[in-house]
Amino acid sequence: MTPHRLRVPAPSAPPPTGHLPFADAPGVPDPIEVTGRWLTRGGRPWFPVSGEFHYSRHPAREWEEELLKMKAGGVSAVASYVIWIHHEEIAGRIRFDGDRDLRRFAELCARHGLDFIPRIGPWCHAEVRNGGLPDWLLARACTPRTDDPAYLEPVRAWFAAVAEQLRGLDRAHGGPVVAIQIENELYDQPGHLRTLKRLAQEAGLSAPLWTSTAWGGVRLPGDELLPLYGGYPEAFWTEADGGWPDTCRKHFFFTHERDDEGIGADLRPTTERGADPVPADRFPWATCELGGGMAVAYHRRPRVEAADVAALGLTKIGCGSVWQGYYMFHGGTNPPGELTTLQESHATGYPNDLPVLTYDFQAPLGEYGQVRPSYHELRLQHLLLECFGDRIAPMESVLPERLPTGQHDRDTLRWAVRTDGTSGFLFVTNHQPHEPLPDHPDTAFTVAFPDAPALTLPSTPVTVPSGACFCWPLRLDVAGLRLEWATAQPVCTVEAGGRTVLVLAATDGIVPELVLDADTVASVATPSGDVTPVGDRVLVSGVRPGTDALVEVEAADGSRVGLLVLDAATARTVYRGDAWGAERLVLCGDGVVFDGAEVRLHSPAAKPSFAVLPAPDSAPVVAGTRAREAADGVFTRYTIEAAPLPDSAVPVTLVRPAGPAPEPVTGVQGRASVPADKYVETVAAEYRVDVPEELLRAPAGVLLRLRWTGDLARAYVGDVLVADQFFSGRVWDVGLERLPVEALRTEGLRLRVLPLAADARVHVPGQVGEAWRAAGVQHAEWVVTRSWTVRAG
User: Where is this region: Disordered (predicted)?
Assistant: First the structure.
């Protein structure tokens, strides 16, 4: 057996407080403050979860439901770039109408209890044309991103326009704006960052936190801006033949290094650092760009899986993060420009060609609101932070005695502990992209505390499977009961049946054990397995995870506690929210939102169902009919009697076969460029899709899902480009509701698919042979996600 030992040092001195110039509005009921190691809100440690969602890349009519999806996914703060070129493409005509309505978006956040973090630029990047700076600005005689007065003059006007939109939405007026980001990825001009903050404040913008991205050895202007970090599982901005970047690989190890010199390295000299690392004891470890997915560039098309995103997020918590911020949490679509297309491209001098329209980012919520497996993986972690984040935030990260020898060490188990000196959480990551990590047989952990007995777990060594990522509790107090340790991950708590129920998630391949402090236990009953006194502890072993695996404990103080051990798959269907007058758990593998007296279910299933704990007094009502009710362990499951789904088959007619692939061309930095439009018009294979009338009458929630091969694909209604994608091996979804219905009726949908030349310097992962380079649509189907409003019975 390989020993896995960790010695917890004596607790550090309390962090400095009041040393940073961040102040909340006077008199707010939950003032936000910053210590040297964590944030507080209302005097308690605060562990925010922020997710990026670009309002100007999504239809305004759908904002509210998508924000509710984010909230149900555990996001507590919504971040969004305020992209200048989206609002003022034409000089002097600043638009905040329709999909650009910044104020309405912020008000929707406030309505649903979500904080809002505008990232106001003026330069954003965001894979937008000119990084978000309008063409007319670049045409002027000025030096952008500096204190050149000719640049600051239009910036001042832009900030004033943004401030007017957010007037009255600051914390002083009960608004949702908790932080404002200045600029982006500007690593070597602290004076300009200070100037921009001053201009924003003079314009009337206000927030308790002012932030800056801090990767690339950033030089910050003293304590003026809170540094925020990032980390991605993959990158589109590196070379096509560069392999998996080490700057991405590093994020699947437990370390205390915050910086990532790889982010944005295509736009700055990698041989230069702006400054020494920001002092770790002065600012808490906060993030704004943990990769919820990854965009694809023409020359490099990464594919990010849900397990990659889950491992990245959990590892960062174990490393010491006290703010989980994701980019992107919700994908989007570039708006059509009035003068030009609005994507980053070689044509605008950038080293990457991006698709014209899609900015899906493989995000947990897709550009059409698709609920992806990564959404469920992250929600599992966010439930943990929602319930226990105030305990985790002050805990320090401690690394074990035996560490990996380097970034290419795949054999040493990767683990860490967050601890306050007497209790904590043990984190294990045995997954990374591209290169699987091995099983670790005969594994047990010993955590030695300075003022408490050491813990060794499990009772018998186990095999940590390849791909496993988990968090186990150490001396977790739950309503009068002390859970000494468990080989299952805490998810959340809920009050049900007169008891506090702690939900835990089993890890596939590891039999769950629960060990209780005998001094806090009066009695234990379990539906399966054994209850064994072991010294001053009680071992509960052999529990079969599932919806009926409720271990019932009467605590020594008379309180009642339930320990519900769900299997790994079921745990990833847990939602927690206010439903029908009480806080409840809802099990559903699809999308669920909580909205006042209503719960809404978004499901592509023929007969959607969901399970609830505690069950409402009577069966919920859907469309005037009570849902069909049945027991599901300690949950009550409800099934909706739904009308049959339309036929999913899609006839795709080949109109024109593809010609020979165009000769590859290169652009900025010698990287492959998107073929010219003339080849899409003359060489691409062309298909026609006729949309059934029943779907045209009700296009909401309808996706055309295509499996295809080739280089790039574009969809048109008439001559209007409506969707596009570069081939990366993923399915291509086209949302029917976004398309002009009347034109579809008469002209149908045209798909053009271009083949890829054999010698193109393009990285497409996981492809074998040459057949995938040929242009073709292999399969098409309609995916219909219906929405159900569920009210109290």
Answer: 1-28
